[in-house]
Amino acid sequence: xxxxxxxxxxxxxxxxxxxxxxxxxxxxxxxxxxxxxxxxxxxxxxxxxxxxxxxxxxxxxxxxxxxxxxxxxxxxxxxxxxxxxxxxxxxxxxxxxxxxxxxxxxxxxxxxxxxxxxxxxxxxxxxxxxxxxxxxxxxxxxxxxxxxxxxxxxxxxxxxxxxxxxxxxxxxxxxxxxxxxxxxxxxxxxxxxxxxxxxxxxxxxxxxxxxxxxxxxxxxxxxxxxxxxxxxxxxxxxxxxxxxxxxxxxxxxxxxxxxxxxxxxxxxxxxxxxxxxxxxxxxxxxxx
Length: 288
Description:
Blueprint: E1 3-4, E2 15-24, E3 27-36, E4 39-47, E5 50-59, H1 64-74, E6 84-89, H2 97-100, E7 103-108, E8 125-126, E9 130-131, H3 137-142, H4 157-161, H5 163-169, H6 172-177, E10 181-187, E11 192-198, H7 201-214, E12 223-227, H8 233-241, E13 246-249, H9 255-264, E14 267-273, E15 276-281
Parallel strand pairs: 1-6, 4-7, 12-13, 13-14
Antiparallel strand pairs: 2-3, 4-5, 6-7, 8-9, 10-11, 10-12, 14-15
Helix pairs in contact: 1-7, 1-8, 7-8, 8-9
């Protein structure tokens, strides 16, 4: 059984209180404000007696263990929840308490081996652009990522039209800060299953996939994922490894995101606003 330690005790704040000066109508006044917290998180992988930092990402604290699990799953380091023995915050005595909660240790079961070279490009990531030097489309093929099979059946346009409002309505942290992205999981009828928020779209998606992994819900073959903002190569890669057949975004996809969707059989929806959206790939799953 997977161990997850310190999860409740070490919960970090997702919001930071500040004071700002507001200029309105030529007058300046001071008022309190709330910002989305952004802090670095280091993912350390423990396997076979070795301990190695495999990624550093800027994220919003909260669901850190899901973020680490989702990241490692998306990169092919773990194939199931059973590969992970324990996830914990760092408790090294030479670190202050606050820094400990920005380091997550993931211990693989039975000293499971992995190729560290596949993770070298992930040493530093940002909430703005994701992992620098990301792998190309060909590397997904080399990893053996399968084409998404048909399903989950036809989805009505009206179901898709309703997703942005449902996503927005569930964004509690966005309501408080106005500065967070979200990734949401829906069933094919448009019912919200889970939602995660973060300063980075890719982190929010990792948290969502990590939740599904740790809950034993993968693959997500009968579900729809929706992200705030645009869809990128990273978003499609993570959804592909989780088996998601339909990916929707409020804004535009990148060219490489469209390439991934078309090559691996994902229905990709963009510019989802009001009663209109564009379908860039996999129109067969949409009833129209």
